[in-house]
Structures are given as structure tokens and as C-alpha cells.
Amino acid sequence: MEFRATLLVILVAAGTTLLTRAIPFLLFGRKRSIPKSVSYLGAMLPHAVMAALLVYCLKAIEFGAMGLWIHEILAVLITIAIHWWRRNTLLSIVVGTASYMLLTQGLLGI
Length: 110
Known about the structure:
α2 runs parallel beside α4. Helix content is 79%, strand content 0%. It has two domains: 1-33; 44-110, no CATH class. The radius of gyration is 20 Å and the shape is flat. The chain has helices at 2-28, 36-58, 66-86, 89-104. The protein is an all-alpha fold.
């Protein structure tokens, strides 16, 4: 019984993945142009992801003592510096998230 449940979960996940990969081709095909709303979302979503990560990073910040907030602010500054330097949203997200996690977990010794 457990094998059937596992197999069913795998099949549902595979089908869902295949469907989400195929939908853009089915909707937009080669002959249709991409709607302006989809192009707009493609341009705006990276910035929305950055804003969501910023809110997550700073949501529980406490200014009682420097040790309580310096890691968060430092991670934000690292993210801003990487983005200004390379102008690459994906790189900024990855480096910013990694620096935040490393700093808040104390793995950098700061």
C-alpha cells in the first residue's frame, strides 16, 4: 500500500511539472505574441522577489543592541552592493540570501 501511495505522489508531481512546463507553449505557441501583461510580470517579478526577501530579512529586526540588527543590515548592504556592481538580479538574490543566512547563523564569525 505504501508503494502505491509513493508512486501516486511521484506521478502527480511529474504530471504537474509537465503541465506547468507545457502551458506556455500551449497558450502562446509560435504564432502568438506574448501578451503585454505577461511581459510586464516577467519584468516586475524579480523586483518583487527582492522586495519579499527584504521584508523577510527585516521583519523581526530589533534595535535594542547592535548585535541584534547588524547582521541583517550588513546582508542588505551586501545585496545592494552586488546588485549595483553586477546589475544581475539572480546573483543579487543568491548572494544576498547566502550572506544573510551565513551572518545570522554566525558562520562568518561577525
